[in-house]
Input
Amino acid sequence: MESEHQDLSAKKWVLVTGANSGIGEATVNQLAEGGWNVLAGVRREDKLDHFSGSPYADSITTFKLDVTDDRDIERIKQFVSFELAAELYAVVHNAGIFDLGPVVDKQKDRVSQVFDTNVFSIISLTRALLPSLKKLKGRVVLISSDGGLLNFASNTLYCMTKHAVEALGEGLAEELRHDGVSVSIIQPGNIATPIFEKAIEARKDEDTSSTTETEEYLSDNEAFMRSRGPHVVAEAVTRALTDEYPQLRYTVMELHEMRNLIAHNIDKLVAMNQSNDEPINPEEFTMIISYNLLQESEVFSALTKQFDGWWSKDKRRTKR
Ligand SMILES: NC(=O)c1ccc[n+]([C@@H]2O[C@H](COP(=O)([O-])OP(=O)(O)OC[C@H]3O[C@@H](n4cnc5c(N)ncnc54)[C@H](OP(=O)(O)O)[C@@H]3O)[C@@H](O)[C@H]2O)c1
Output
């Protein structure tokens, strides 16, 4: 069932990281237009005036925030505690970098940079903002990716970080639920933003043997730039911030991406089951899938009321 929207946004403060480009920029503008006060975190000082020409500039406060820099995290913590009197309702962990090329090519510094930006910063920044988020029973939104549930061989390092974001989001949701803080994970497929070009640029600094590979990536980029624009992800973020009962996951994928994701993950589960020394039988496997698919249907809810307890909650994991 789709949750109802509430007007929770009236003049609430939200922090968006990686705000000067792509999904972050679209999200800042959409939230500011929707009546939020937005703290827009930008990595570079020369981007501090990025929103000065925006029609919503009055609702946007730009803040220098390199999410991998502990000093910047301390500064935002102080700003939220004292200037905002701990009235920050939500954080959108959007800052991220993409990475291309075989994982064996990756030097330790690059691996650290990608993990620091895409994963570890989420832990430090969430911790820094927790007093305010707890006080307001606010929200945390993480931008993951289909690469959090699939591995694409041309970008394994990136996928590794997004797999970690998936686990982190689930863990934070459990940990913070008791404090009334909701956590949502947004899972976009390909979105046309500059992220791919930046990764191609970063790859030029690496020792790589193959120019053909680079050419392949460049042609991928053309397909990539035909994808939908970042506003579709901004819409999902807005839902995660305003739904009365926010979902753990909001997926923003095109049909072919969704098909690929489902087929790949079912293949994986079937192969895991078959290789297990105690596999569950195909009938039970099918029943679990049917159960999850039908759970939201009216027929199913009528049936479960009738047979209350035949498939008790402790026999399965709670559906999210
Ligand atoms: N585009 C897609 O297809 C896609 C799909 C799934 C998920 N995502 C995720 O969506 C998020 C946004 O990506 P995007 O596509 O909008 O890419 P983008 O246009 O390149 O934007 C990324 C933003 O993150 C910022 N950033 C990078 N390192 C940072 C750091 N250390 N501290 C603070 N900010 C930093 C960038 O700043 P600079 O411009 O200064 O580098 C930029 O503002 C990322 O988490 C990405 O993984 C994107």
User: Anything to note?
Assistant: The two ends are 12 Å apart (CA to CA). The first helix runs from residue 22 to 33. Residues 267-315 form one domain. Confidence is low (pLDDT under 50) at residues 1-9, 312-320.
